[in-house]
Amino acid sequence: MKEFQLKTTARTYSILKIAARYSLSALMLLFFQGHCQERKPSLEKPNVIIIFADDLGYGDLSSYGHPTIRTTNLDQMAAEGQKWTNFYVGASVCTPSRAALLTGRLPIRSGMASSMNRVLFPDSHNGLPQSELTLAEQMKKGGYATAAIGKWHLGHKAEYLPTSHGFDSYYGIPYSNDMDNITPFRSAGGYFSFWKSEERKDINTFNVPLMRDTEIIERPAEQHTITKRYTEEAIKFINEKKEEPFFLYFAHNLPHVPLFASKDFEGTSPRGIYGDVVEEIDHSVGQILDELKKTGLDKNTIVVFTSDNGPWLIMNEEGGSAGLLRSGKGSTWEGGMREPCIFWAPGRIEPGIVTDLGSTLDLFTTFSKIAGVDIPNDRIVDGVDLAPVLFNNKTSTRKDMFYYRGDKLYAVRVGDYKAHFLTQEPYSGPEVEEHKTPLLYNLSIDPSEKYDISEANPEIMAKMMKVVKDHNEKMVKGPDMLKDRG
Amino acid sequence: MKEFQLKTTARTYSILKIAARYSLSALMLLFFQGHCQERKPSLEKPNVIIIFADDLGYGDLSSYGHPTIRTTNLDQMAAEGQKWTNFYVGASVCTPSRAALLTGRLPIRSGMASSMNRVLFPDSHNGLPQSELTLAEQMKKGGYATAAIGKWHLGHKAEYLPTSHGFDSYYGIPYSNDMDNITPFRSAGGYFSFWKSEERKDINTFNVPLMRDTEIIERPAEQHTITKRYTEEAIKFINEKKEEPFFLYFAHNLPHVPLFASKDFEGTSPRGIYGDVVEEIDHSVGQILDELKKTGLDKNTIVVFTSDNGPWLIMNEEGGSAGLLRSGKGSTWEGGMREPCIFWAPGRIEPGIVTDLGSTLDLFTTFSKIAGVDIPNDRIVDGVDLAPVLFNNKTSTRKDMFYYRGDKLYAVRVGDYKAHFLTQEPYSGPEVEEHKTPLLYNLSIDPSEKYDISEANPEIMAKMMKVVKDHNEKMVKGPDMLKDRG
């Protein structure tokens, strides 16, 4: 059995090789000019679509090494675009990771990282504070139509929902798809043992709401068709807004457990239900890209695909894989925070593999600038502008990454090196291991974090400690928005 | 910094998609006809090149998920060809793996698997028996010119060398590149502690010979330039033989330790010296494919790239990575025996990702048939013909795989399932764990062999035990060729 894969001829390769070598600027100019004739008012403002998966691991796409998950569309997107291999999210669990993406700030600054709760729950009182400025608000300032589709998880009360944070509209499940009914977890003897029961296959068990803007329109949300319906909604939005620049934040609820696939996908992947679900998301990506091509919008749209955090390993076969990276969701090892990431904009983004550092934190800055909107100077923004890497074959200006767990700094990456001050298994309770001499790894040489080189490299560690000291001195933590519940 | 990656346009994709859907037979016919006009005597006989890396792991190519090793040429080869994700070697260490590839038979049958030594050494008395029939001998019968370049490791005495096994010529190091001088290992307090010493960077430490046919022409072989010189030799052979069908067995000595790269590559990979070496092999593959394209031979040549066994994990940063697979070289876990494998023949081999089972054992049968030569019926041949998968979008007829360590059957795969009867860490000494109830994994769902499902699936196990019983009943072991040394 053969899966169709991206392919090219030697000739295409050569042409693009030349284009890549001598910069794509001429080609890009052509596309820009082509676009001018199509859509007048926004000629410097490409549309932006962020597709965000939930709990998908670094190793879960075929182009990132999975042997049995067949992500034909994402692989093609990667070959036509940029496949980033050192791309990080702002936190290893849902809520703070999403806050990081939308604000461009480490969640500790916005109060979306707490010592008490790692994420928001249906009984949480708060959400992302109004004082935070979101990417959607930025894009609106730049004249963009904005929509959020899918998982939100930054507060389910009206004042915290997408429509209060710069999005013209919202359609989706406002938190995780497993979150709204604790009875079955109790009856199974706890959350994790519940996942062996047959009840996990019943959407009624979870009772999560589907919302339009601030109204619940379905409960429990029919999760078998949720990916399909999100996609239809996204395509509708693209078509409705094709005359103006638009920003679409499309955050899938899957492949977070519980796993549900539509009839067309259920039972089709050799990888089992997890594969069915990922392949349905891959299909959804294909539908979005096809729609852009069909409408000619591919010439003026930037699409990014990534995921909110690493695989939920404790879910066994129903959790994903971080590939060669260590650990997964909930952890500050690489598997928790490094994600597949693909940037796509044919004719604009130069195809290739990018090994430079990047982060969802950078999307705020990158797209604000593309929309012609200033970065606020009344607060620290952690993002850098990735445009030079995306469009001009330059090196990323991101040189470090801070790995927080809750409100504590566990690790830092500076260049190739990562130092761990604290380590902890993702879900093993409160056993934190403190490293008086921080563990040190060279991630370029040792991506699996196996070989501690701290002993031989005190001078590298000293340099890193300076970066950390500087970071800590400037840190202003926001008031904890996750702690109040019930 | 951006690495050039394979890319295509949407249009190329669509054209090839249609071609892929409606079978490439028409296109293939065209190529065959084109070929008829070029080279008369061998119109149905494409050239065959097998490129075989040494100790390269499943996760060591960018297209198989490595974040910092940049294998541009192999990735392009994979996108133009077939990327196999369930492809196995015949054993998890050098000598028996190579015997399996060249004979199409499990090494236990040819006596190339032993309870005493896992591989041949410079003081070994024997090698691959003359009674074995090699793929080279088959190709010769079919009228092919044959050459072996690189590592042999099936006996270094004249009667066991390539020129005694069907190859017209041989150029290479006859065994592993670390093998010929035990003094430094002794002085360092043993083989594995030696690998922390600076001596590992000196070619004189290893004193391995470079041979032409049966003569030593250089000692110690200059290993910094060995990949480069092998490649030059390969290109020379291709050009000399371009008027007749040829079979080239091109077995790199690297990335087996000691790691040596040429000046152009040393210090260039973010992955360190291991990356330098793999990227130089990748460059070599690019040179071979470019030469085929330049001479028009790409229209009539099948190229296969794979490796002899998994990564040598005990070498730490100087060993490779099995990606998401468990363990590595020396082990019967997947990381020891599943390898990257790419088949390439533009216009003949239908591009795609293949998740079906395949093995180096199958190359004997597949290429013998392509050369029009019968499979011998006086012995058991373990290979199947992969042509239906390669050329006609059919399902592989390989349904099982036997995992031997030395002369003992440790595990078996039947369809998606793998049962382990014995497990053992690759290099931990003699501690074999025997499983009264064999461990059972579904490799399609659980490629990392984490979740033993034996308890819930006695009926699957019963079916597999039947396959094993049948296999054992028919097994005739060859006399041990590895045991005599010194």
UniProtKB/TrEMBL annotation, chains A, B:
InterPro entries, per the entry: Alkaline_phosphatase_core_sf (IPR017850), Sulfatase (IPR050738), Sulfatase_CS (IPR024607), Sulfatase_N (IPR000917)
PROSITE patterns attached to this UniProt entry: SULFATASE_1, SULFATASE_2
Source organism, top-level taxon: Bacteria
Domain called Sulfatase N-terminal: residue spans: 46-373
Pfam families: Sulfatase (PF00884), Sulfatase_C (PF14707)
Keywords on record: Calcium, Hydrolase, Metal-binding
PANTHER family hit by this protein: ARYLSULFATASE A, ARYLSULFATASE FAMILY MEMBER
Family: Belongs to the sulfatase family.
Name of protein: Sulfatase
